[in-house]
Design a protein that fits this description.
two-stranded antiparallel sheet, 10 strands, 8-stranded mixed β-sheet
Length: 336
Amino acid sequence: MTFLWPPMLLAVLLVPAGVWLAMRIDRRRRGRVVDLSGSPTGTAVAPTGRRVMDRLPAALAVAGFTVLALALARPHAAVPLPRLEGTLMLVFDVSGSMAADDVSPNRMEAAKAAATALVDRRPDGVVIGVVAFSDAGVTVLPPTSDMVAVGAAIERLEPTRGTSLGAGILVAVDAIEKAREDTPAEYYSNRSPEPTGSPEPVEPGSDAATLVVVLSDGENNQRPDPLEAAATVADRGVRIVAVGVGTPGGAVLDLDGFRVETRLDEATLQGLADITGGSYSAAADGRAAADVYGALARALVIREEPLELTGLVAAVGLALLLAGTGLSLLRRGRLP
């Protein structure tokens, strides 16, 4: 357990100070009673059980004040909580060919629009991450439920140079595996334990709660081979939903004075989907969101979630305080 306002823990020191003050006041009160009566209040020793019951209300009150003082520091803990969760990785092609304008206004903006539609239609419990690739792949944002952060990550993407479709796919799978490390091994999950080596191949598409969505024109000019990368993904049970951005007719780009012809490679994108048990559609069809969420299931996982315990701790302190007060009134016959 941690505390959001640690300096407020000093309030706990007020409890023993209050106990000392209360005991001093009680002794002075007893002394005045003796002075007024002219005789001691009595020296008989009460039975043990009675002494315990006499002191119990005060003990409950002290415990209550101590717990309430702890609540002032706002206790905070990571609590394992069950939830239904699906994981979606958006893999963006940010190679130079994505600047082509064979779709309006260009391929990059069309890919962003398709991804934004996915984010807008996200069901509860689905976390989304963002990976970008050109001549290498990089995790822009690990899987998260913060859709504002996802939207900002998508908006920052711009075309660069080189194309390594396979690298982007492999980086996406690695990001998924790292996100799964948050699931404590001692709790139930349909996810496999953290592997010590290369994981054993599983049935393609068996991980129904995980999808990799590739938004690309399908062109590739760098290693690794995208179909080999897709085979690695298939061995982990993850499916690829490929979204083709561009047209088969293509366009001609001017890159630093060189005229480069680029066109949509549907055969490669369809191959990625077929190997992994996924699906392919063109971004222009507008079916991407329906294809993705129609195929994505949600699995029960246990994740450690940060949880503020102030309300719970304060409730326990108040209950102890009320119990002590009620017991004291009951023993004195003052309850109605």
